[in-house]
Write a structure and sequence with these properties.
mainly alpha; 3-stranded mixed sheet; about 240 residues; 10 helices
Amino acid sequence: AKRFAAMFENDPTVKVARIFKEHSAKNVLTMELIEGIKLSDKKAFARANIDKKVLAQNGVNALLRQVFVEGFFHADPHPGNYFALPGNVFAFIDYGMVGRLMQEERLELASFFISFLNQDSESAIKHLFHIVGTGQSTDTASFEHDVDDILHEWYGAKLKEVSLAQTFFHIMESGRKNGINFPSSFAYLGKSLLTTESMGYALDPEFNFTRQLRPYINKIIKEELSISKIKTKIIDQSLDYINYA
């Protein structure tokens, strides 16, 4: 909870329940009461003058930042853990279950989605193999064919016919079937993506998850390719070579 609070400290669109350390102990956690509106309470939304479209965007942007920037995300995103506050503020509660992604996993995941959205299945599969684990029982060819079929099914469908998050789930299921081992955090990630996407559509029938995802991950890729980041990586790798020598 403290880490989430620090993460969104300067973000006026997200509210994180405050922890009262002086009233907490080993077996007692005292948190701020969030008197928000349940996302299913349509009448309360009207009374509070909350813009559902803006709220949906704020909620999805919060998740994307958690996943692709911080690598630390809320992994139990059911409707009871989301609230709306006046000013289109999105509030999270209950941090008992979180997921973590290493920097390399975040970059490869962002690269996968870029290739996926650009309808480049060969590149998308390549980035997946940089993330997953394989073994003697792995059927690489079958997995590649499955992923290619799943992606082309998504490409050929209308936006609302096939869920982007559900497509990601199908890819992980194919991995399990073909002896591909995804990082354990990806199960949490799939759940978070699916629930957040459903929340977006519930709040805004015209919600477009892809439209919000593309610029966000494009920004991540550009930042990773910045001169300062490249210099840092070169220095780090040089130190590794020196140690090896």
